[in-house]
Design a protein that fits this description.
Number of strands: 17
Radius of gyration: 37 Å
Order of helices and strands: HHHEHHEEEEEEEEEEEHEHEEEE
GO molecular function: heat shock protein binding; unfolded protein binding
Protein name: Protein SSUH2 homolog isoform X1
Structural class: alpha+beta
InterPro entries: HSP_DnaJ_Cys-rich_dom, SSUH2_homolog
Oligomer: single chain
Number of helices: 7
Shape: elongated
Length: 431
């Protein structure tokens, strides 16, 4: 029995291939989608993202991207997105029609539709049940909605000066080593998982401490009293300034109804009182330096990790009355999911509409502040199954929507609402 042996070169190539797959960021669509239809493209490795970010700024260390191999899922409810086959639409055609089964939701019959509406109305204490139970279902229309998101995970750094009174002790000054730039700081221990909503940290910049003379008191440790020297020019003060005693009005004596006078006990008969703040010294302790005359200053790196989210909804006129937030929260089907240093528009070989929609989402990328750098981006396109149901009774009609795979109900104008301060739950007893 013959057995084929691999050469050392082939073994190394297979090992590198496995390592490349291990480092991949998962730039792919569904595992159920054929490669030719998924718009997958080439995988983007961690090393490619790191090298791209390094070239964006000379002081951006590659060690900051250690968390790229472990990133959380999008900010959505668990199982918010299922996987499905990418829509097979014609060139330039808006995907529509009866696609509920294709997008993971079974087609509902009229009995199931009515029961969903009855259950929804039953949780509203001031809604009557008669329209849900008795009105006729006139039309059932699929109007699926496409939701595109672009999440930009960024890191922002800035230097702020921190000051405190210098009491005593050794300081970490420039003589002990060079002061690092804000983008040269190694923050691997603080780096969060990718696409967290927000994280903030403060880090002292090494060798940035220095001792400076207090500018508030010019290094004297004392400043002019704000009470008795309020109108003095900066740097000048007067001593032994007295104020008139309010008890005896400066007489030093207290007059009584029988015509007698006694010595004022508040000013001891002097008629004047010293400044209550400084004792008429004219100076008080400087609160900035706590009377030390010196200030210890240091540089603090204020670091913020944030995820900027840009969302876009593409809906037909049939679903235009539903707020976009309803679709963002709905459970849909994920058609495309890519993650890279900077995402580019998706490519679907058979859908011009999805390609254009993805380009519009990418074009609306949130601006990044000048003090920030992009770490990674994630681009997702999903479809939310939506069914519009129209119910009629005589000359009246209303519409409601069944949204998402979990069959959530959205109604804007239900015809039987009683919210005038009296709850009409007894309406449910009427059949």
């Amino acid at each position: 029995m013959e057995q084929a042996l691999l050469s050392e070169e082939e073994v190394e190539q297979k090992g590198e291939e496995k390592w490349r797959v291990y480092q991949s960021l998962g730039r792919s669509a569904s595992v159920h989608v054929p490669t030719s239809l998924s718009g997958r493209g080439e995988e983007v490795s961690v090393d490619e993202i790191r090298s791209a970010s390094i070239h964006s700024h000379p002081y951006y260390p590659p060690s900051l991207h250690g968390a790229l191999v472990s990133s959380p899922e999008p900010d959505a409810p668990p199982y918010a997105y299922d996987q499905a086959i990418v829509h097979q639409g014609g060139f330039g055609q808006y995907p529509s029609g009866n696609m509920s089964r294709e997008f993971g939701r079974k087609i509902l019959d009229e009995v199931e539709i009515r029961q969903l509406l009855i259950d929804h109305v039953g949780h509203r204490c001031c809604w009557g049940s008669r329209p849900a139970r008795r009105w006729k279902i006139a039309a059932v229309e699929d109007c699926n909605v496409y939701v595109g998101t672009l999440e930009t995970f960024m890191e922002e750094r800035e230097i702020v000066k921190e000051r405190e009174p210098y009491l005593k002790g050794e300081i970490d000054e420039k003589d002990k080593g060079p002061e690092l730039g804000v983008w040269e700081l190694d923050l691997r221990s603080e780096f969060p998982l990718l696409f967290v909503s927000h994280k903030e940290t403060k880090v002292k910049v090494p060798h940035s401490e220095s001792i400076q003379k207090c500018t508030e008191c010019e290094g004297r440790g004392e400043i002019a009293c704000h009470t008795c020297n309020a109108n003095q020019e900066p740097g000048f003060y007067k001593e032994k300034q007295m104020s008139r005693c309010p008890a005896c009005h400066g007489r030093g004596l207290i007059a009584h109804q029988d015509g007698s006078d006694t010595t004022c006990t508040k000013c001891n008969g002097k008629g004047l009182l010293p400044c209550a703040t400084c004792g008429s010294r004219g100076l008080i302790k400087c609160e900035t330096c706590m009377g030390r005359g010196s200030i210890l200053t240091r540089s603090i790196a204020l670091v913020n990790w944030r995820t900027l989210s840009n969302r876009k909804v593409s809906a037909t006129t049939a679903a235009a009355s539903v707020p976009d937030e309803v679709f963002h929260k709905a459970r849909g089907v994920q058609l495309y999911n890519t993650q890279s240093y900077q995402c580019t528009p998706a490519y679907f070989a058979d859908s011009y509409f999805l390609n254009q929609f993805s380009s519009e989402v990418i074009a609306d990328r949130s601006p990044v502040p000048p003090s920030a750098r992009i770490i990674c981006e994630r681009h997702i396109i999903s479809v939310v199954p939506v069914t519009r149901v129209t119910m009629v009774h005589r000359k009246q009609s209303f519409s409601f929507y069944i949204i998402g795979i979990s069959n959530e109900i959205y109604i804007k104008d239900y015809p039987s609402k009683f919210c005038w301060g009296l709850c009409c739950c007894l309406e449910w007893l009427k059949m």
